[in-house]
Give the backbone structure.
Amino acid sequence: MNTYEEKILDELKKWEIEMCKRPSLWNKATKSVQTKINEKIPQKVHDVITTSMKHMIKATLIGSEYTTKRTIKFTADLRERDYKLQERLAFYKKTAAVEGAGTGVGGILLSLADFPLLLGIKMKFLFEAASIYGLDVRDYKERIFILHVFRLAFSDPHKKKEAFEKVVFWKETIEEFPARPDSIDQMNWQELQQDYRDHIDLIKMLQMVPGLGAIVGAYANYHFLEDLGQVAQNCFRWRLLMDENSKLHKHKKHPR
């Protein structure tokens, strides 16, 4: 392991502590308010939103424009992959900001259209990020991994440790899913959409305010991609380093 990889491992250890820490008082207070609001929303509304989000994400996970991404071969080292990721993240942050500003200008109706558009940008970024770190996104197992990365990025603070462990103990996690592409249906879709909505709802409500919409939309979308980019990079770094370490030990154990 080279010096750069050792540096990244130190960063990942700090990230692990951040992901596993207990929710703050602010998190607890915010969750209490959001729970009360969600309880007042009829279950039928939750069902409709859950189904819509499930279909949007599933369409992304099986869409050819995403699953045909070219995987960067393992000849590239971690430093090169990190550089490429930051380069593409900068592009997606700008794209999301422009989209947020555009829909924010239009008030309530266009702000509602921002939900699927922003979701599409996030998923497209995740597929490209996965390819940068060597994952074959044509493999349905890797697409389920991408979905778990998405879940971790927008998880409820009270569930973040659990979502984190699903990612870092991936070999155990993927065993929970049958060996077929439709195993993605086993995801808890209502929990996923609820956590995602809770994560973005408050600031997205401000996007609907006349005069503030464009500014808030651009700012919010930019930072949503920034947060997603950080989580995604660390998840894919972890996978890459752990996979390489596993291969190294296997080679030492069974030399030719």
